[in-house]
Records
---
Amino acid sequence: MKPGPFDYARPATVERAAALLAGSGFAKLLSGGQSLGPMLNLRLARPDLLVDLTHIASLKEIRETKDFLEIGACVTHANIEDGLVPDCTNGMLPSVASNIAYRAVRNRGTIGGSLSHADPAADWVSTLTVLDAEIVIRGAKGQRRVPMANYMLGTFEVALEEGEFLEAVRVPRFSKSARWGYYKFCRKAGEFAEAIGAVVRDPERGVCRAVMGATHSTPILVADATALIGQGFDAAAAGALLDRHEITDAYERQLHVEALRRATVQAGA
Amino acid sequence: MADGDIKEGKGVGARLIRKEDDRYMRGRGQYIADIKLPGMVEVAFHRSPLAHARLRGVTIPEEHRGSVFTAADMVGVKPMRAVSGLPGFKPSEQPAIVTEKVRHVGEPVAICFAEGRAEAEDIAASLIVDWEELPAVSDMLKGREPGAPLLHEHWGDNIFLESFVDGDIESIAKDAAIKVTREIRTARQCMAPIEGRGVVAWWDNRLNQLTLYSACQMPHIIRTGLCGCLGLDHAQVRIIAPDVGGGFGYKGILLAEEVACGWLAMKIGRPVRWIEDRREALTAAANCREHHYFITGYAAADGTLLALEAEATVDSGAYSAYPFSACLEAAQVASILPGPYDFKAYRCRTYSVATNKCPILPYRGVARTGVCLAMELILDGIAVEAGIEPYEVRLKALVPPEKMPFDNITKKHFDSGDYPECLKRAVAAIDVPAVRARQKRGEPDGRLIGLGMSIFCEQGSHGTSVYAGWGIPMVPGHEQAQARMTPDGGLEIRVGVQSHGQGLETTLAQVANEVLGIDPAKIQVVHGDTGMTPYSTGTWGSRCMVMAGGAVATACKELGKRLGRIGAKLLQTDVANVKIGNGEVVGPSGSVSIAEIARVWYLRPQDLPADVDPGGIEVTAGYKPQRDSGTFSYAAHAVVVAVDPVTGGVEILDYVVVEDGGVLVNPMIVDGQVYGGVAQGIGTALLEEMPFDAAGQPLASTLADYLLPGSTDVPSIRILHMETPSPYTEFGQKGIGESGAIGPPAAIVNAINDAIRPLGAEINQVPATPRRVVEAIAAAARAKKVA
Ligand SMILES: Cc1cc2nc3c(=O)[nH]c(=O)nc-3n(C[C@H](O)[C@H](O)[C@H](O)COP(=O)(O)OP(=O)(O)OC[C@H]3O[C@@H](n4cnc5c(N)ncnc54)[C@H](O)[C@@H]3O)c2cc1C
C-alpha cells in the first residue's frame, strides 16, 4: 500500500496553482489528503503531479458580508468545529463539523477537499446543499460561481472544468429565528453515513429546504420542502422521493426516511 | 481474603504494574518494522487477484528479471503440510508461492524485492500473469454439495474432515415437551492485531544460520516448520519474535511469507524484509470464525435441558494451515458444544469444508465463540418456551459445584468451579428485576431494551493427551523453562512461549518471586528467541500462565535447592537446616542473600569448599500439571442493550463479566485480558464481517468496509472475579487469556432478541448489523400480516 511515483508541487498562490494544473501530465490537487492519501496508497489514483493547495494563504481565509460567510477551500473541519470560523448558521456548521470522522481526520480534512471529492456520504455535501451554499471556482481564466446543488454532478464527480479548482464556499446567513436539523446514521462513530437527513427552516428568508443524503449519488434536494415538512413530516412524500431516485432497497429507504424525519423533528417542524 | 482482593507483595496475586509497559508506553518497543539491517531490501508479493484459477505463466518485464522469483525458482522448497491424525482427514499441500493452481485471493504468486517497498510494489504490479479462471467455492454449504467445484481434485469432494459424536437423542426427543431448533451463522472475520505480520530474514555466514525475525507467537514451531519446508537443520535456523503487537492466533501459524522470505534471503545473500499491510491482511488473510449450525435443543416443560443435536459446518478455507490444521475448529465444535451444562443425550456431526478462502486459523476463543453463540441462543429459546427467565434455564442445567471435578457428556474433565454461583452473581450485578421494570416502562426515544446473558467454560492449557488425540504436527509435552542466576544476583528466566501483550515479562517474574523472593525488578524474562530459550509450542490456547508459569516455578524450585546447598556451605551448616525465601538462604545462625551466593559461585569460587554441589545455578526444568486435560476457567456475561427498531442500531448500555480464572497471578493483567477480549467479542457480535462474492472475492478490502470496534463501541465493562483454584496446577491458576472474546456474541444477540421479541422478531446470525436487525423486524411484521 505505497503510492506509485509522482511529482509534488507546493504553490503559494492560486494563480500559480492554476498554472500548474494547466501544465502537461495528469495533475491532482492535494488538500487534507484524507481521501486522496488512501486513494494514492491503494493506487486507485496514479497522478503524475500533486499540487498541494494547503500553503496558499488565501485559501484559508474567511470573509464575512451581511448576506454570506465565505470559507476558503483549505479551511479544515477542525477549524469549523472549534469555532475559529465565525458561524452564520445558528450552530449548524460547527455541529456538523464536529461529527465528521475522527478528530485526527478533522485536523487535516478540508471543506474544499470534501466537497470536491464528492463522496455522496460526506457530510459537507449534504450540508452545503441544504444550506444553498455557493461554490466559488477558480481557473486559469479567473473565477466563477455555481450553487452547490449544481456543483456535485454524481458520485466522485463535480462541475470543474479542466484546470479549475474550488476556491471557497459562500454560506448564506441564517436569520435569528432560523432552525435546522441534521441527523446522520452510521455504523459506528467516525464512519461515513449510511443515511443523512438535513433540514433548514428560515421563514424570515422564505427558506424551507430538506435533503436526503448519503444516497448512491447526489443528495436528494427538496428546495421547497413546505409540503414535505411544513405540516409535520410526510413520510409517504419522502418515500415517493426515494422512488423517483430509484432507491428500492427496503432497509435503505427506511433509514433515509427516518433520518429526514429525525432532522425535521430537530428543526422544530 | 475475598476473591479479587489486592494482595501484598510482588508474587502470585499481586496487581504488579507491567514491567514491559515502560518501553511500550514510551514508544520504545522494537517491532519488526523497527528492524533495519545494512543492505536490507524490501519485499512485496504479487498476489493472486482470483480465488480459484490455474496458473498458466508469469511474465516478468526484462528490467525486473533478478528482482522477481516464482515457484519455478524455488527448487526443492517443500509445501506446508498440516496433517491431522483424525480418521478420514484429507491433507492438503500449501505451497509458499503458487505452483499450478491458486485456491484463494491473495495467495503469493511471486516474491519481488527492491530498495524500498514502493519500488517493490511497482515491480509486483508490472508482472503479467496468465490465468485460467475456475469456478469458485465461496460458501461452505454450497461447497458440501455434490457437483461443487473441487479445490483439491483428487479428494473427490471438499471435505477436509467429517466427525461424528453419537448419542440416543430419539428416546429423549419423543417425550421432550420443548423442542427448539435454530439455524445459526457466524461471519468470516479477519483478526486485526494493531501490528500486522512481518518478517526480516538474513543469512548469518558465521553461524551458518538463517536468522528470521517474525512477528509470531510460536518461534520454536515456526523453526520446525520452516526447517521442513526449506530442508535445513534446526541448527541452521534461528527464529526471533521481537516485540509483537498482538497475536490472537493470527500469528500462530507458519507463513508462506516466512518460507518465501527465508528462501529469498539465502538466494540473494542480503537481508530481506516484508511488512504486511492492512490491505494484504484483509484480502489475503481473513481467516477465522466462520461457522454454520443446524441445532436443536430438547427440554422438559419446566425448561430442564435434556438433549442437544447439531450439525455444524466450519469454513476451513483452502488449505490446512501449519500447525493447527484445517479441522481444529470443527473437531473442537463437536467436543465443546455442550458447554458448561449437564444433560442426557448429545449428537453432533461436523464438517470442515475446503473453500476458496484463506486457510482458517484459531482466533482467540477458537471454536468457542461460535459454539457459545449456538448453545446460548438455544437456551434462550427454551426459556421462552418454558416461560421462565433465561438464567433460570441455565441454572437448571449448569454442572453444580458438588459434582466437580466433572466429566461431561463429551468426556471433558471440568476441574473445579461453581458455575451456578457465577451466573447468580452476574444476575445480581446486572440487576435483572430493574431491567425488566425498565422494559415495562418503555423508553422515551422509542428504543427497545434487551437483556442477554451467556455462560461458558474455556478449556485452556490442554496438553499432550488432548493434542495427541488430534494428531496435528504440534503436540505439547512438558513445558520447559530455564532459571539462571547472574553474578550480580539477577535472575534470568528463559521461556519458549512468547509474550505479545499478555504481560508475561511481569507475571512470570511474579512466579519466580513467589518461589525465590527475588525482586521482580531484578528478574529478566527472556522469550521469543529460539537461540535463547528452551523448546516450546509457544503461546496459544490460554496456556502460558499454567504451563510456562508452572515450568518457571519448577525451575525456580530446583534453582532454590541448588542455591540452598551452596548457601548451606557458606553458612557452615547442613543443607537440611536451611530454608530459602525472601531472596535469601536462612540457616540456624544467620543468612546469606541469593545475590551473595551467585556472586561467590561465579566470581569467588575460591571461597567455596571442594565438595560443593557442582550442578551450578542454571536450571532447565520441565512441567506438566497433574492432569493434562486442561484447566476450565469459566465466565458469565450479562449485557443490557438498547435497540433502535427503526435504524437497527444497537447500543450497549451495561456489560458485566463474572470470571473465574482460578488463582489470578496478576488480577490487573487478567482484567486487561478480559477487557480486550470483550472488545473483540463486541466486534464479532455487531461489526466484523468479511463478505465474499460468488467468485470468492473478499469484499471488505479496507478498514472503512471491515468495521472494527472502536473506543466508542466498547462500554465500561464491570468485571467481578471468583477464584476457585484448579486442583491440578502449580498455584491453582487456570488459563484465561481467550475467555473475554467468547461470551459477547451470545450475550449480545440474546439481548437484541430479548429487545425485539415483543415484535415477534429474532436474529440468529452475527454480526447483528443494523440491516439484519431491521430485516428481522420487517420479516416478523410480514409474517404477522400473513397470519
Ligand atoms: C477514516 C476516515 C473517516 C472519514 N469519515 C468522514 C465522515 O464521517 N464524513 C465526511 O464527510 N468525511 C469523512 N471522511 C473524509 C474527510 O472528511 C476528508 O477530509 C474529505 O473527504 C476530503 O478532504 P481533504 O481535504 O482531505 O481532501 P483530499 O484528500 O486532499 O482530496 C480529495 C479529492 O478532492 C480533490 N481536491 C482537494 N481539494 C480540492 C479543491 N480545493 N478543489 C478541487 N478539488 C480538490 C483532490 O484532488 C482529491 O481528488 C473520512 C476520512 C477518513 C480517512
---
Amino acid sequence: MTTLTQNEQSSQVKHDQDSEHGDYRMFGLATFLVADAMTFAGFFAAYLTYKAVNPLLPDAIYELELPLPTLNTILLLVSSATFHRAGKALHSNNADRCQRWLLVTASLGIAFLASQMLEYFTLPFGLTDNVFASTFYALTGFHGLHVTLGAIMILIVWWQARSPNGRITEQNTFPLEAAELYWHFVDGIWVILFIILYLL
Amino acid sequence: MTISIPPSSSDQSKKLQPEGWLRYFSFSLDHKVIGIQYLVCGFIFYLIGGALASAIRIELVSPISDFMPRDVYNQVLTLHGTIMIFLWIVPVVNGAFGNYLIPFYVGARDMAFPRLNAVAFWMIPPAGLLLISSYFINGAAQSGWTAYPPLSITTPAAGQLIWILSVLLLGGSSIFGGINFIATILKLRRPGLRLMQLPMYCWAILGTSILVVLSTPVLAGTLVLLSFDIVAHTGFFNPTLGGNVVVYQHLFWFYSHPAVYIMVLPAFGLVSEILPVHSRKPLFGYTTMVYSIMAIVVLGFLVWAHHMFTSGTPPWMRLFFTIATSFIAVPTGIKFFNWVATLWGGKISINSAVLFSCGFIVNFVLGGITGVALAQVPFDVHAHDTYFVVAHFHYIVYGGSVFVIFSSIYHWYPKFTGRMLNDSIGKLHFALTFIGFNLCFAPQHWLGLNGMPRRVAEYDPQFIFFNQISSVGALIMAISTLPFLWNVINSAFTGPLAGDNPWSALTPEWLTSSPPPIENWEGEAPLVSKPYGYGENPEKPNLTSNILSDQSNSDSEEDEVKK
Ligand code: HEM
Ligand SMILES: [Cu+2]
C-alpha cells in the first residue's frame, strides 16, 4: 500500500469519529420514512393498475372537482415553509417566535383536515361503490391519518418548546427536527397523491 | 493515536435490569439478552410448527381425509406455514443471531436503538399467541400463508382477520429490527473499522435489512386492504365487486419474493462465518461475496412475478421475469463456489457445526437447481401448485436456512452459555436430520412432477407409496429434535467449560469472555481488521495479531508495503 492510501485511511478514521458523535436517531427516522413511503407506493401501484386493467363503465366515471384539493395542496406547502421558519427561530434561540410558527403550522394542518372532511361529505360516491372509490378513500384516508399524527406531534413540540420550562431548546432540537422531517415527508406524499389521484 | 470507546455511562437503566435467568423474561435492553430471547422464542414456535407439520404428514399417510376434517387440515397447513416463516426462520436468522453478533462485529456495545430493539422483540410473542389462539376462538385462517383472495375473503372471517393482525405485528417488528440493523452497521462502527473489513454476516444483515425496509411495508398495506375487503366489503381484491385478485398477487409477491431472501441471506452470512473458522482458511472471495449479496438484493426486487406464471400474466411479463429470475442464479452460484473454495484444501474439523453447514451447501444446491427449473415458464405451468414447488422451497428454507440455524447453534453455543455442546450427540442429530429431511422432501419432486397438487388433504391412490416414504422422513425429523433438545438443555448445566475462544476464531465476539460481560468488553473494543486472517499459520494462528490499535493498523500496512 502507498502512503496515499494511508492518508486516506486516517481521514477515514476521522470521518468515523465524526459519525460516532453524530446523532443517528435522525438517520433511523429517515429509514422509517422510506419504509412508510413504500406503503404509499404499494397503494399507488394498486390504483394505477386498476386504472389500466379495470376500466369503469363511462357512466360510472366521476371527474373529481379540483378547487378543494388545490386549496389543500397550498395549505400543506405553506405549512412546510412555516415549519421551516419555526426551526430557524429555535436555532436562533427565539422560543416565542418558534412557538408562534409552530402554532401556525399546526393550524394549517388542521385546516387541511377540515377541508378534506368537507370534500368527503360533498363527494357523490361512497367507500364501497367501486374499486376507484375504495382506493380513493384508502389513499386519502391513510394520508389524512399521517396528517393527524403530524398535527398532534406539532402540538406536542409546541408545548415542549415553551420558553422557561420546555424540553425543546437550542441544545435539544431533535424532537423539532424529527417532526419537521416527518411533516415535509407527509407534504411530499400529498403532492404525489394530488398528481396521481386528481390530475392524471 | 488510540481511540477507545469508553463503556457508555448514559444507559444507566441497563444496570437496573434483572440479573440471572429472570432477565430473559424482562424488557432487557442488552442486545445479547434480546438475541437469546429471539432464539428461544423462535425455537418454541418451531416446535409448535413442527407438531403441525407432523399432523399434516399423518393425514397424508392415507389418500383419504381420515385424520382430521378438511377445514381443520387447511387451518393446520396455514398455521404451519405462517409460524415457520414469520415466527421461526425470519426472527431467528435475523433477530436472534443478528442481535447477538452485529454489535460485536461493528465493535459497538449495543445496537443503535436498544429500546426499539426490545420493543421489536416483545411484539413477537403476543403476535404468535394471537395467531395460535385463533384456532381455538373460531377456527384459524384457512387460505395458506399466501392468503390469496378470493379464498381469504370467502373463508370464515374471524380467523383470517386475526391472521392479518398477527402478520401486521410481525411485519412491524421486522421493520423496526431492520431499521436498527441498518443504523447499527452504517453508523455505529468502531472508529477505524472500514466497511470492507466487516465480517460477512454484517453484509448479509445489511442487505436483508434493506429488503425488509423496502418490501415489508407493501405487504402491510396490502393486508390492510384485504382486511377492508373482509370487514367493510370493499372490492379491492373481490372480482364480484369489480376488484382484481391479480393485483393482490403482485403486491403480495413484491413482498414475499424478497421475503425468501430475508430468510436465506442471513443464513448465507452465518455460513460464511462458520466455514473459515473450522477449515482454518480465510473466506474465499470476500469482495465477490459482498457484491453478490448486493446483486441479490437488487435482483430480488425484480423477480416476483415468477410466482404468477399461471395467473394470466402477459407474455412479455413472463419473459422478463423468467430472464430476471435466471439471473439470480449467477450471484447465488458465486457464493456457492466461494464456500466450496473456502473448504478446499483447508484443515477441516468434522464437527456438528461443519456438518450442518455442509448439509446446507448440498441441500441448497438442489433447491437452487429446482428453482431455476421453476423459473422457466414452460416447466412452471406444469409444476406450479404441485408438490414439486413444496419440495423446491423446503430444500431451501429447511435444507438451507434451518440447517444453518442448527449449525450456528453448535458454533455459538459456547459463546452464549460458556459451555460446550456434546459433539457426538450433535453428529447423531445431524445424521437423523439429514436423512429424515431428504427422505421427507426428495420424493415430493416425483409426486409433483406426476401431478399431485399441493395444499389438499386427499390425493390419488397412485401416490400412496411416495407419500408414506415422505411421512417416514418426517417422523425421523421429528425424532431428530429429541437428541438436540437433550443436548442443549443438559450441556447448559454439565457441558465442559468452553473458555473464551474454543474454536481459536478471529472474529470479535470470541475476543471476550464466554458469556460476554454486559457491555461486551471489559476494556476498549478491539479493532479487528482481518476477521478471516487464518492464512499465515493454520495450526496456531496468532490470535492477537489482528487486534490492532489504529496506530499499528497503519504500521502493519506500511510493513506490507516494505515487503
Ligand atoms: C436460485 C434461486 C431461486 C429461484 C430461481 C427460485 C424460483 C422459484 C420459482 C419460479 C417459484 C414459483 C414456483 C411456482 O409456484 O410455480 C418458487 C417458489 C418458491 N420459492 Fe424459490 N427460487 C429460488 C430460491 C429460493 C429461495 C432462496 C427461497 C427461500 C429462502 C425460495 C423459496 C420459495 C418459496 C417459499 C416458494 C413457494 C411459495 C409458495 O407458493 O408458497 N426460493 N421459487
Ligand atoms: Cu420467488
---
Amino acid sequence: MTGARVTGAGGNGPLLKVENLRIALQGDGVTFNAVENVSFEIGRGEAFGLVGESGCGKSITALSVMGLLRRPLSLGGGRIVLDGEEIQDASAAEMRRLRGKRVAMIFQEPMTALNPLSPVGRQIAEMFVLHQGASWREAMDRAEEALRQVRVPSPERRIRDYPHQLSGGMRQRVMIAIALACGPDLLIADEPTTALDVTVQAEIIDLMAELCAAKGTAILMISHDLGLVANMCNRVAVMYAGRIIESQVADAIFATPSHPYTRGLIDSLPRLGERARRGRQRLTEISGVVPSIQAYPAGCRFNPRCPAVTDICRTTVPEATSLPADGIVRCHHHG
Amino acid sequence: MRLGANTWIGGGLFAVALAVAVTAPWIALTDPVMDANLLNAELPPSMEFPFGTDAQGRDIYSRVVYGAQISLTVGVVSQIANSIIGVTLGLTAGYWGGWWDDFVNGLTNVMLAIPSLIFALAIMAILGPGLVSLLIALGLTNWSYSCRIARAQALSLKSQGYVQAARILGYGPFRIMFTQLLPNMLGPIIVIATLGMGGTILAEAALSFLGLGIRPPFPSWGSMLSDARETIAIAPWVSIFPGLAIFLTVLGLNLLGDGLRDIFDPQATTRRA
Ligand SMILES: Nc1ncnc2c1ncn2[C@@H]1O[C@H](COP(=O)(O)OP(=O)(O)O)[C@@H](O)[C@H]1O
Ligand SMILES: [Mg+2]
C-alpha cells in the first residue's frame, strides 16, 4: 500500500514549511502563547537544528508538526506545510496516515518509549504491518534487516529480546529502526541522546546522520546542546521563550552569532582548539533564568538577562532582520 | 518470581475444584439425580456414602462432585463475561475520556450503588430459573470492578512513553488499546477476575438457594443447601458438605487473587470484598 502522494508544490519546494506557528496554552481563564511567530523551512534531505534551553517550546513545536498537541495545548495559528500540503487542519485519520510513514519521531527516553511486554522485533515489524500492509512473516524478516542496519549485533537473536534486555543505547537504536522503518521523508529527533551515556551519544548521532543521509531523510534535530546540533545540521534555529531569535547556517552561527543570547550560548560551551583561541578565555554563563510562560516579559523576552539591554528592548518586540545566507535575527542591537 | 503461600494454597484449592468438575463422571459413585432411594434417606457418612445421603437417599458426595460442574461453569463463564464488559468499557473510557468516560463512569457508579445480587435476582425473575439465565444474570451485573481497574490503568498507562510513541508512529486508537494498553494491564485485570469469580460462585449459590438459579433435582451447591434447610438439625452432613465445597472453592479463589495481586502489583489495588 503506497499512499498516493499529493504533489503540486511537492517535488521542488521545501519538505516542511512552518509559518507563523502559534501554540496556545489554555490556563485558568487566560490563554498564553507557549510558542509564537515561529517560522522555519526544512529542505529535502536537509538536517535542521532547533536549539534552546529547556522549556522554550522545542518539543511542543515538534508535536504540533505531528498534529499531536493535546489539551491544554492547541494550535493557535499559523501554517504547517508538508511536501506542499497544508496539514495544520488535517483530520485525525489523515494525520495518522502521515505519522510513522512520512514523518517519524524519536524522543528522549529510550527506556520508556518501547512497550515492555513486546519483543523489539515485533515492535519494528508492526510498522510494516501497520503502514505497508505487510504480512507478519515478511515484516519480521524486514525487522531483522532493520536491526542490522542500526548495527545491533546478532539481530537474528535480538529481534526476540524484550526492551529490558537491552541497554539504553541499544534501545535508542531500536527506536531509530522503528522510526526509519517505513522510509519517512522527515525524522524528528527530540533530544535523542540526552538520556544516554556520553560515550554512546556520539555513536547514536552518527548512526542517525548516516542512515538519514543514505535514505535521503530530512532531520529536525532538537536539542539544548548547540554544539551537538551545529555539528550535525546544515542550518540551526535558536529558540528563546517560545520565539526563534536567530537562525543561521550552522558554521555561521559559531563564526558570527548575532543575538546576545546565541553569543551567550556559545560562550558557555566548553570550547576546543580553534574556538578556544578565538573568544574569551573563561567559560561564562548567561545570568538569570528562563522566564515561565505566565511571566514572559514585554518586548524582547531576553531583555531581563541581556547584557546589551536598552529601553526599546523592554517595550517593543524586535522584528526579524535578515542576515547573509537566509539567516535572520530578532534583536534591536544585533551586529 | 516468588509465588508465595497464598498463590500455592489458593491455586491448589481452585485446581482441585476444577479437576473435580472435569472428572465428575468418573469420580462420582452414583448418578446425582436418578439414584434416589428413599430406603437410604439421610444416612450419615459411611464407607458406601462418603458424605452421607440426603432426604431422597441420594449420595451427597456424587452430588457435590457434579455440583462443581455447575458452580464452576457459572463462576468461570460469567466472570469472563464480566471481565470482557468491564475491560472494554473501562479501557475505552480511560483512553478516550470526554463524554464517553463520563457516561461509563456514571454507569459504573449506578452499578456499584445497586447491590449486584438484587440486580441479578431481578434479571432471574424476568428470565426464569436455569443455567443460561444464571450465566446472563451474573455475567451482566459484576463488571464494575473490572471496569474501574481497567479505566484507572488506561489513565495511567496512556501517559507512558511507549503509548505516546505508538501515537507518534501512527498507531490508531484500537491498535494502541489492544497492543499497548491491554497487555500492560492484564495483571490487575486477572487479579480482579479471580476475586470476582469467588463472588460469582457465591452469588450463584445464593440465587440457587433462593430457588431462582439451578432448580432441584439438579445439583448445584446452592440448590443442595436449599434442599438441606429443613434437615439441618437432624442431618447436618446434608448441608455441611456442599457448604464446605463453596467455602473451600471461594477461599481458594480469594487466596489465589491475593497471591496474584502480590505478584502483579506490589502496591496493591484495593477492592472492597
Ligand atoms: N501538557 C502541557 N501542559 C501545560 N504546559 C505545557 C505542556 N507541555 C508543555 N508545556 C509548557 O510549554 C512550554 C514548552 O515546553 P516544551 O516544548 O516541552 O519545552 P522544551 O522541549 O523546549 O524543553 C513549557 O514552558 C511547558 O511548561
Ligand atoms: Mg523537550
